[in-house]
From TrEMBL:
Residue stretches making up the HTH luxR-type domain: 165-230
Modified residues (4-aspartylphosphate): D68
PANTHER family cross-referenced by the UniProt entry: NITRATE_NITRITE RESPONSE REGULATOR PROTEIN NARP (PTHR43214:SF41), TWO-COMPONENT RESPONSE REGULATOR (PTHR43214)
The protein, known as: DNA-binding NarL/FixJ family response regulator
SMART domains: HTH_LUXR, REC
Domain Response regulatory, chain residue ranges per copy: 15-133
Membrane-spanning residues: none
Annotated GO MF terms: DNA binding
Highest taxon, organism lineage: Bacteria
PROSITE patterns per the UniProt record, alphabetical: HTH_LUXR_2, RESPONSE_REGULATORY
Gene source species: Variovorax soli
InterPro entries: CheY-like_superfamily, NreC/VraR/RcsB-like_REC, Sig_transdc_resp-reg_C-effctor, Sig_transdc_resp-reg_receiver, Tscrpt_reg_LuxR_C, WalR-like
Keywords, ordered alphabetically: DNA-binding, Phosphoprotein, Transcription, Transcription regulation
Amino acid sequence: MQTEGFEAETPSRWNVLVVEDDRNTRAFFEASVRRCPRLRWLDGLGTLREALAWLADADEIPDVLLADLGLPDGSGLDVIRAAVARFPECEPLVISVFGDEDNVLASIEAGAVGYIHKDAAPEDIAHTILEMKAGASPISPMIARRVLAKYRSLRLERRPAPAMAPEAPSLLSAREQEVLALIARGFSYAEIARLKSLSVHTVQTHIKNLYGKLAVHSKNEAVFEATRLGLLP
């Protein structure tokens, strides 16, 4: 699962922030994270208000956000949006009792890179986090099936307008198209830089430009929108 290059480029430990209103679940996540030498526990928060305040004043970057959607004072979707807006490299993972297509798709559009139903939550969440940081997108099988079914129905409903077809190839530059294709395949910024003989800063600039052209704010939104526009197969 890991390569020699991956070990050399990753930080010594990934910072983990958890937003979960159930204290027992939060403690379970904390224990798993603290047992893993490659992970570092940042904080555990129980409300939307606490999470937004933490993100606004944070002096440390969360590499991973574990987020529940059903918070007592709002939706975890707002936490995900706030996290990826301030920390673009933060990768949110939803762990929720909600398994309907609308919540799953909304989470992906907000920036989540994985979605696990609480009924199928792994015994060792630390292992799941490490897999995600290695490029995986953890998702519960029953949720994956629902998302695929929903996606198929959306593709049938959304017929691209003929007038839009000529514009799609020129929307992104050739280099932006290459970077987008690699993002869709799950490559990290550092891996893209190495494959294309570019600096990480240049890769980030291309990604920032294509975000602006696609009017999105995260990698998952970029892939979703580019697929909808026919820029990705």
